[in-house]
């Protein structure tokens, strides 16, 4: 089921939490929603789930406006602070969530069993939610969001509080679900976005500042190709001047003279790997290292959100 | 299953799991039982086979008992944030309000069912007016429903349970006692207005065994108004 966000605006007093944003998420897509604190991620998610209403614009899910309330049943939602009824045992809570989502009585029990297995809650299933550790509560939060097998999953920081092993498991789970369903997840953990998401959306101060895959964002941010090289069997300065003569190379830096390490920047839209290799072959130098230097997602994020 | 019923069931289970239900039941039965059978102006003192003593003490006990069960309904969900998860499930705001209303009404009904032995005992002692007694129970249920509705409205205002308890208590107190006093104290249209607004006035008229449409319409209006205001309050969210 597709989600379409159209010119969405939400004000809190004079502060614009979400400022006229539009985007679409398609079935089978996992969208990573990034942005600094207070950028409007949670507000946007709350509007999609129908919890709060937008001031202007609309969100449609499968062609239906969220304002009608008819879309709630398609959505599984894990809110930011994972609010759960602490006095309820895990099994009872999941049964309550399944029933309230309108699942039939016979379907509920097998589905709870399945969710408990999927989220690794077997040892804790009879405990009260309030007795669980943060990581297990997070799993209960995920289980309640997915209990009715929703077409759309909205996850606000799904991996907070999980240990590294659990994070890997949950990411795999989200990836599997994302193959057939529509998933929007927000996070502060940038490697997580790269590992799970097909597409990244960065928002800042209520506006979209970047939209695309990790690769396209890098390309946009970087522009020119940067390579780190190590070329041996020759004097540093000779290599330096020869590298500078290459037509595709715009700039050369010696980063470590003792170990013959260089950083080169290609001219706009050019790739220098072949030229460098040919140069080394011609002069009988040993090219021992060639590392394409990628702009890290962190840097892109900082560039876009720190004005 | 209907979502309203799912919510009501969860609330009732939560009362019994947290022992709140037992404490309130014991308090209600102890209090009404004491004044009905052992108090100063008890059944034996009156020497009449009716439950008027019980009905007059029960209304005041319920006035305190009901704010204690309604206070947490929305206040706690707001404080812990669970209201966000609840309202983003496949339910409408109205179903949530009705579910909570139903759960409180069932709690009161359970308490009243436990007082049925009073009825059977008095019926053994003399010639009880069955019509008036049944009407009295019906009046207590309507009165309770009105108090619950007022309590749910109070609970929807704040996330502080002490505040919502005291507000509900104050509002019920006004409806049940102050409007009555003002109604009989003042003359003219203002006096009439307060008499019409008083819950006790309408309750007495039902518990005498007279089922008048205007009393039922009155209680119905209080219930609908309270629930509508509660629904309005929870629909405003940030």
Structure description:
- The complex is a heterodimer of chains A (307) and B (238).
- Chain A is α/β, with parallel strands linked by helices and 307 residues long.
- Chain A is 35% helix and 29% strand.
- Chain A has helices spanning 41-48, 90-100, 105-118, 134-146, 164-178, 190-196, 214-222, 236-245, 273-283, 297-305; strands at residues 3-12, 15-25, 30-34, 56-61, 64-65, 75-78, 152-156, 182-186, 199-204, 207-212, 226-232, 249-256, 261-266, 286-292.
- The mean pLDDT of chain A is 87.
- Chain B has 238 residues and is mainly alpha-helical.
- Chain B starts with a helix and ends with a helix.
Count the DSSP helices of chain A.
10
Tell me the number of helical segments of chain B per DSSP (H or I, 4 or more residues long).
13
Shape of chain A: elongated
What gyration radius of chain A follows from the Cα positions, in whole Å? 25 Å
Report how far the terminal alpha carbons of chain B are from each other.
30 Å
Mean pLDDT of chain A, as a whole number? 87
Note the main attributes of this structure.
heterodimer, A: 307 residues, alpha/beta, 4-stranded antiparallel β-sheet, 10 helices, 35% helix, 29% strand, elongated, B: 238 residues, mainly alpha, 13 helices, 0% strand
Write the layout of secondary structure elements.
The complex is a heterodimer of chains A (307) and B (238).
Chain A: E1 3-12, E2 15-25, E3 30-34, H1 41-48, E4 56-61, E5 64-65, E6 75-78, H2 90-100, H3 105-118, H4 134-146, E7 152-156, H5 164-178, E8 182-186, H6 190-196, E9 199-204, E10 207-212, H7 214-222, E11 226-232, H8 236-245, E12 249-256, E13 261-266, H9 273-283, E14 286-292, H10 297-305
Parallel strand pairs in A: 3-8, 3-9, 6-7, 7-8
Antiparallel strand pairs in A: 1-2, 1-4, 4-5, 9-10, 11-13, 11-14, 12-13
Chain B: H1 3-17, H2 20-38, H3 43-46, H4 52-70, H5 72-80, H6 82-87, H7 93-113, H8 116-125, H9 130-155, H10 161-185, H11 188-197, H12 199-207, H13 213-235
Helix pairs in contact in B: 1-7, 2-4, 4-9, 4-10, 7-9, 7-13, 9-10, 9-12, 9-13, 10-11, 12-13
């Amino acid at each position: 089921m597709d989600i379409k966000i159209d010119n969405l605006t939400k004000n809190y007093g004079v502060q614009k939490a979400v400022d006229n944003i539009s985007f679409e998420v398609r079935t089978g897509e996992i969208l990573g929603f990034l942005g600094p604190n207070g950028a409007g991620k949670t507000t946007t998610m709350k509007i999609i789930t129908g919890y709060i209403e937008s001031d202007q614009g609309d969100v449609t899910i499968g062609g239906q406006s969220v304002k009608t309330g008819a879309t709630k049943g398609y959505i599984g939602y894990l809110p930011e602070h994972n609010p759960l009824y602490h006095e309820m045992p895990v099994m009872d809570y999941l049964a309550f969530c399944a029933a309230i989502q309108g699942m039939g009585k016979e379907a509920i029990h097998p589905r709870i069993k399945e969710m408990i297995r999927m989220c690794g809650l077997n040892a804790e299933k009879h405990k009260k939610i309030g007795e669980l550790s943060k990581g297990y509560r997070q799993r209960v939060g995920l289980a309640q969001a997915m209990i009715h097998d929703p077409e759309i999953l909205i996850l606000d920081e799904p991996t907070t509080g999980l240990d590294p092993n659990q994070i890997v498991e949950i990411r795999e789970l989200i990836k599997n679900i994302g193959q057939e369903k529509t998933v929007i997840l927000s996070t502060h953990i940038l490697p997580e976005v790269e590992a799970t998401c097909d597409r990244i959306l960065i928002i800042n101060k209520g506006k979209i500042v970047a939209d695309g895959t990790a690769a396209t964002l890098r390309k946009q941010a970087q522009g020119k190709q940067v390579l780190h090289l190590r070329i041996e069997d020759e004097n540093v300065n000779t290599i330096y001047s020869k590298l500078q003569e290459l037509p595709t190379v715009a700039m050369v830096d010696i980063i470590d003279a003792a170990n013959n390490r260089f950083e080169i920047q290609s001219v706009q839209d050019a790739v220098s790997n072949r030229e460098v290799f040919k140069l080394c072959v011609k002069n009988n130098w040993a090219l021992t290292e060639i590392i394409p230097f990628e702009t890290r997602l962190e840097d892109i994020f900082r560039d876009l959100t720190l004005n | 299953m209907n979502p309203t019923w799912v919510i009501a069931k969860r609330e009732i289970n939560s009362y019994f799991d947290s022992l709140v239900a037992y404490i309130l039941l014991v308090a209600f039965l102890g209090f009404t039982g004491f004044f009905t059978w052992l108090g100063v102006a008890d059944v034996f003192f009156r020497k009449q086979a009716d439950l008027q003593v019980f009905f007059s003490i029960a209304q005041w006990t319920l006035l305190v008992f009901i704010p204690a069960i309604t206070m947490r309904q929305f206040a706690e969900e707001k404080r812990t944030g669970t209201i966000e998860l609840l309202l983003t499930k496949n339910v409408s705001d109205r179903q949530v309000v009705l579910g909570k209303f139903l759960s409180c009404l069932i709690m009161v009904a359970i308490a009243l069912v436990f007082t049925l032995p009073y009825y059977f005992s008095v019926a053994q002692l003399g010639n009880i007016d069955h019509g008036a007694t049944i009407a009295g129970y019906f009046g207590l249920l309507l009165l309770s429903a009105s108090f619950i509705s007022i309590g749910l409205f109070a609970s929807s205002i704040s996330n502080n349970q002490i505040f919502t308890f005291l507000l509900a208590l104050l509002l019920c107190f006004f409806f049940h006692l102050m409007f009555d006093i003002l109604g009989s104290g003042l003359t003219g249209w203002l006096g009439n207005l307060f008499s019409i607004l008083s819950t006790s006035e309408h309750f007495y008229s039902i518990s005498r065994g007279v089922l008048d449409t205007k009393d039922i319409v009155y209680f119905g209006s209080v219930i609908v108004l309270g629930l509508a205001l509660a629904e309005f309050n929870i629909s405003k969210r940030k």
